[in-house]
Amino acid sequence: MGRAFEFRKGRKMKRWSAMAKAFTRIGKDIVMAVKEGGPNPEANSRLRAVIQNSKAANMPKENVERAIKKATDKDTANYKEVLFEGYAPHGIAILVETATDNNNRTVANVRSYFNKCNGNMGTQGSVEFMFDHTCNFRIPAEGLDPEELELELIDFGAEEVFEDEDGILIYAPFNSFGTIQKELENRNLEILSSGFERIPQITKKLTEAEMADVEKLIEKMEEDDDVMNVYHTMEEA
């Protein structure tokens, strides 16, 4: 198996298990998708994907509709995605994806988390190159052979296809998202969920005490409502 499989296996998805946090995240994803391509899911592939994710998270339909309506309000005009970079203690690179309507607030908060946890906020490009920006899709496994599917989807950008207890996962470079989404839809394959991740090219093994130092910073970041994802180069236990 490749790095995407190991990354998925090791990633602590418990951080997104809180229902309220997951709904907040999806709501912001909807706002960003509507701002990018409009409120019609049929004409907006990114919005279509987020709505699929909302179903996978059991988000009520009225919440989705409310988020789409909110996205057309002038109050969300200043919403934008901002990436922050830096280092946690013990030389662990950190990437923080945010969606914010107040960049000054978000910058101040993220910087304070780094400072309080003995980390350092870096400049743009300081650690982003250490991660591969990928897209992923989850589809039902019934009636499909992952190896055959991988061979069929290579021409559309797929790099890794594997099965876990929840279905088949397809990983590809970030810019292959639209191509693979369209091909899966053309094949009438149900997309259970999809998204983007940043997979570290190299990870670093730490002691339990050192891991606790890094986890403290990650947890502070993830408690912030503006933070969508936190990625790191620490080897997961």
Automatic annotation (TrEMBL):
Ribosomal protein found in the keyword field: no
Location (main, coarse): cytoplasm
GO molecular function: DNA binding
SUPFAM superfamilies associated with the record: YebC-like
Domain TACO1/YebC-like second and third: 79-234
GO cellular component assignments: cytosol
GO terms (BP aspect): regulation of DNA-templated transcription
Subcellular location: Cytoplasm
Keyword DNA repair assigned: no
Keyword annotations: Cytoplasm, DNA-binding, Transcription, Transcription regulation
InterPro entries (UniProt xref): Integrase-like_N, TACO1_YebC-like_2nd/3rd_dom, TACO1_YebC_N, Transcrip_reg_TACO1-like, Transcrip_reg_TACO1-like_dom3, YebC-like
Residue ranges annotated for the TACO1/YebC-like N-terminal domain, each copy included: 4-73
Family under the similarity heading: Belongs to the TACO1 family.
Protein name, as recorded: Probable transcriptional regulatory protein E0F98_14220
Source species taxonomy: Bacteria, Pseudomonadati, Bacteroidota, Flavobacteriia, Flavobacteriales
